[in-house]
């Protein structure tokens, strides 16, 4: 079973992509499934690390939290730019020690931090597990540390580790 | 775009609202890219366009084509997914290049490169007080 379908998540997302582009019908479903399964075999030949999803239910919670934060920070950053760059705090770097080690989890964290305006992922030292962020409006360093550690990293560790 | 006149009023209002949100945020982001001073500030501005700028325009497109064709049209979601997944690649590449350049210039405004391991430096404590000029800089400029 796992020889035939080495990457089930990849197959499902490829089939969904195929159906979205080609339209929903039985013919397209069969054609898309065959293509996706063959593509997954090709992908398996590269031997990439296989992500493990331990907690599916928390994924939805993470999506909801990130969605809300993106809306909130869009408004915050847009208003700072419209006021000519004036803000309460100042923009600065910040080092955050991470406990998250899973590569997929780190990739998700990079996506979350990058797509949230106001925070930018600058550098990650994998030997020391220290992440350097740039914060656009840094007022309270502890609040940001708390946000990254308890709001995102905790959930990502629950999901992937 | 003649058939756009046949849209029901609620759909037209909703589409216009999301289009304006998306286009407006992208415009503000581009303006910020032009106006903000340092490289690390400017890196924040375009993310407005890649987050809700894209999301607003995609939502408007989904509503428009779903109403016009009387079926659910969702393939625009793929654009959003690919934009979200690929933005960090270029953004992190750019910021790491900038950090590398500023560290090579010994710019005191950027965080210094951490020593790989502290154990070797304990033996000669005379060489320790190098990062002190870091504090004097931040308050003035």
UniProtKB/TrEMBL annotation, chain A:
<dbReference type="Pfam" id="PF01899">
    <property type="entry name" value="MNHE"/>
</dbReference>
<keyword id="KW-0472">Membrane</keyword>
<keyword id="KW-0812">Transmembrane</keyword>
<feature type="transmembrane region" description="Helical">
    <location>
        <begin position="7"/>
        <end position="24"/>
    </location>
</feature>
<feature type="transmembrane region" description="Helical">
    <location>
        <begin position="30"/>
        <end position="46"/>
    </location>
</feature>
<dbReference type="GO" id="GO:0008324">
    <property type="term" value="F:monoatomic cation transmembrane transporter activity"/>
</dbReference>
<dbReference type="GO" id="GO:0005886">
    <property type="term" value="C:plasma membrane"/>
</dbReference>
<feature type="transmembrane region" description="Helical">
    <location>
        <begin position="58"/>
        <end position="84"/>
    </location>
</feature>
<protein>
    <submittedName>
        <fullName>Multisubunit potassium/proton antiporter, PhaE subunit</fullName>
    </submittedName>
</protein>
<comment type="similarity">
    <text>Belongs to the CPA3 antiporters (TC 2.A.63) subunit E family.</text>
</comment>
<keyword id="KW-1003">Cell membrane</keyword>
<dbReference type="InterPro" id="IPR002758">
    <property type="entry name" value="Cation_antiport_E"/>
</dbReference>
<keyword id="KW-1133">Transmembrane helix</keyword>
TrEMBL record, chain B:
<protein>
    <submittedName>
        <fullName>Multisubunit potassium/proton antiporter, PhaG subunit</fullName>
    </submittedName>
</protein>
<feature type="region of interest" description="Disordered">
    <location>
        <begin position="106"/>
        <end position="141"/>
    </location>
</feature>
<keyword id="KW-0472">Membrane</keyword>
<feature type="compositionally biased region" description="Polar residues">
    <location>
        <begin position="131"/>
        <end position="141"/>
    </location>
</feature>
<feature type="transmembrane region" description="Helical">
    <location>
        <begin position="12"/>
        <end position="36"/>
    </location>
</feature>
<feature type="transmembrane region" description="Helical">
    <location>
        <begin position="73"/>
        <end position="94"/>
    </location>
</feature>
<dbReference type="Pfam" id="PF03334">
    <property type="entry name" value="PhaG_MnhG_YufB"/>
</dbReference>
<dbReference type="InterPro" id="IPR005133">
    <property type="entry name" value="PhaG_MnhG_YufB"/>
</dbReference>
<dbReference type="GO" id="GO:0015385">
    <property type="term" value="F:sodium:proton antiporter activity"/>
</dbReference>
<feature type="transmembrane region" description="Helical">
    <location>
        <begin position="48"/>
        <end position="67"/>
    </location>
</feature>
<keyword id="KW-0812">Transmembrane</keyword>
<keyword id="KW-1133">Transmembrane helix</keyword>
């Amino acid at each position: 079973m796992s020889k035939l379908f080495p990457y089930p998540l990849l197959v499902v997302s490829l089939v969904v992509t195929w159906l979205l582009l080609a339209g929903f019908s039985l013919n397209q479903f069969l054609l898309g499934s065959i293509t996706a399964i063959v593509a997954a075999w090709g992908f398996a030949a590269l031997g990439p690390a296989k992500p493990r999803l331990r907690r599916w239910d928390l994924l939805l919670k993470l999506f909801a939290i990130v969605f809300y934060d993106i809306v909130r920070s869009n408004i915050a950053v847009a208003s700072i730019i419209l006021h000519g760059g004036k803000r309460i705090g100042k923009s600065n770097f910040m080092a955050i020690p991470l406990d998250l080690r899973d590569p997929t989890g780190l990739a998700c964290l990079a996506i979350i931090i990058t797509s949230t305006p106001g925070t930018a992922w600058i550098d990650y030292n994998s030997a020391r597990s220290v992440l350097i962020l740039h914060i656009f409006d840094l007022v309270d360093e502890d609040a940001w540390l708390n946000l990254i550690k308890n709001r995102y990293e905790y959930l990502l560790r629950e999901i992937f580790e | 775009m003649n058939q756009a006149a046949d849209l029901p009023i609620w759909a037209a209002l909703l589409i216009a609202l999301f289009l304006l949100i998306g286009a407006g945020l992208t415009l503000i982001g581009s303006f910020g890219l032009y106006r903000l001073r340092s490289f690390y500030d400017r890196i924040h501005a375009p993310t407005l366009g890649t987050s809700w700028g894209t999301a607003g325009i995609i939502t408007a497109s989904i509503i428009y084509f779903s109403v016009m064709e009387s079926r659910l049209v969702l393939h625009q979601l793929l654009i959003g997914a690919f934009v979200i997944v690929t933005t960090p690649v270029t953004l992190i590449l750019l910021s790491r290049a900038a950090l590398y350049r500023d560290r090579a210039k010994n710019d005191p405004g950027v965080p210094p490169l951490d020593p790989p391991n502290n154990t070797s430096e304990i033996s000669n404590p005379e060489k320790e007080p190098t990062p002190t000029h870091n504090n004097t800089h931040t308050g003035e400029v």
